[in-house]
Amino acid sequence: MASSVQRAIITSEFGETVTIIKRESNDDCLGVDDGVERISTTMALGNNSTTNNTFGNNNELLDCVVCGDRATGKHYGAISCDGCKGFFRRSVRKNPVYECRHQNNCTIDKDKRNQCRHCRWKKCIRMGMKKDAVQKERDRLGRQRSNNHTYRMTAIKSIGRIDHDFDEDDDDLSIMALLRAEQTAKEYIGRQIKLDRHPSNTERVQATLETIGISMNYQLRSFIEWAKDLKGFIDLSDNDKIALLRGHTGENLVLGVACRSLNCDDYLLLGNHYVIPRITADPGLTRAAGRILDEIVKPLKEMQLDEKEYACLKAIVFFDNDNKSLSDPMRVKELRKRIQVNLETYINQQKPLMRGRFGELLLLLPPLQNIARLMVDLVARYNQDTKQVDDLINEMLLSKFNKEFIRYSQQ
């Protein structure tokens, strides 16, 4: 029986220098689990390592110690793939009770890892994943967020280095994945509202130009958080991420306020709970509010748009392959097509009697674009008069061809 040894030195997220020793056997009797569990680790405290990868000395990728899939690094104390990393993280945070339907000794490999969560969880623990490492990461991220209250475009600047957990159980642009991203955005805004003490969602305080600007800033920041939660987006080049984030920001701001206002009586509900009535003291704002209510809110009310359709429509607007700044429009086109197929399939299965509904939703895109242009013009005029538009709004909405912004965002 012949065997070979591979070694890799990596640095964990907590500063450990870790030597990974992988022994591979040519014995055909060894299964995936047996081979994986022959990986051993030795730790040395210190930061002298200059290598941070999951490659063996023959440039072969190491395997996840839990399921045998390709590892992406040392996560929570064990060399693992993104799938097992995400599973462990969710399990620690949600603390579910898993039960095995068999004998508590299910095989956990790449093909069967989703069949028994109980045994997968046990194996994560057995192979060295640590619960407290998840909490340490959460605390670290919390400190980063609190120190980044001003935000600016730091979020865009860092999108190429985001380390997110994506569930391998789902299509990365499935409706469920889009709903999870939407929830991430809502939670982000909720934290900001509590932090800045805005009206509760039961109060109805008319917005001023200042509070409209604050709401727009919240929406832009949550929009970036939403995008960062989509694996299809994270896998794009930095250039294309920036192009998409700036390409249809206005449309998504309009769509967001329209959907929040579906249960409102002739007024728009902003993300920070202030409201814009149909008639205001500002003629330009009155015109924009009226068009949103008549051309977007009204048809969406009549269609009884649900949250899954909204999540898909938002993503379809975002992944626009006609964006002239894209370096790989065909890849973006494929992402958009997948979302459209998912939406059409959902409508056909869940609302089979509503013929033409998919087309009706897409017909909202032209008025959405027109109203977004009107809104951007209003913001531009306000900025020209007052110079009080904050940096994030200025850079995402008003500096579409600002080369300095592109350079800054890619630093």
TrEMBL record:
Record Pfam families: Hormone_recep (PF00104), zf-C4 (PF00105)
Residue ranges of every copy of the Nuclear receptor domain listed in the record: 61-136
Record's protein name: Uncharacterized protein
InterPro entries: HNF4-like_DBD, NHR-like_dom_sf, Nucl_hrmn_rcpt_lig-bd, Nuclear_hormone_rcpt_NR2, Nuclear_hrmn_rcpt, Retinoid-X_rcpt/HNF4, Znf_hrmn_rcpt, Znf_NHR/GATA
Domain NR LBD: 170-401
Keywords on record: DNA-binding, Metal-binding, Nucleus, Receptor, Transcription, Transcription regulation, Zinc, Zinc-finger
Tree of life domain: Eukaryota
